[in-house]
Amino acid sequence: MDRSYTATLRYATLSYQKMNLVAKMVRGKKVSEALDMLHMMPKKAADILWKVVKSAASNAEHNADADLKNLTISTINVGRGMLLKRFRFTSRSGVHRYYKHRSFVRVILEDIK
Predict the structure, then answer these.
(1) Is 102 helix (H, G, I), strand (E, B) or coil?
(2) CB-CB contact of 6 with 52 (8 Å)
(3) Which of 65, 113, 97 is nearest to 57 (CA)?
(4) N or C: which end of the chain has fewer CB within 10 A?
(5) What is the C-alpha separation between 7 and 55, in angstroms, rounded?
(6) Could you say which DSSP state residue 39 is in?
(7) Exposed, middle or buried: residue 75 (CB in 10 Å: 0-12, 13-18, 19+)?
């Protein structure tokens, strides 16, 4: 019987493009292997994804007594979140606008025996 377990993070403080670069590297891997890879990467997105994958694995262990050895990452969905619009004052009473990007992350694990 195949079961799936999820964890979701909303409004992560990083753009979805940067997050998706790291997510591509761990899609389809076993959870223990993915956690090791994410722990060693020197990117901010790796720290965020490590927490979400760890949360999904903990959900699987706690809610359904799933074995961590049999869990694999079936999908990682990274989507665009809302923008925070900001501005900075410049010379001669001017204003420069800039945006702070957010992203949504959803990790789905499958128990394959």
Answers:
(1) coil
(2) no
(3) 65
(4) N
(5) 6
(6) H
(7) middle
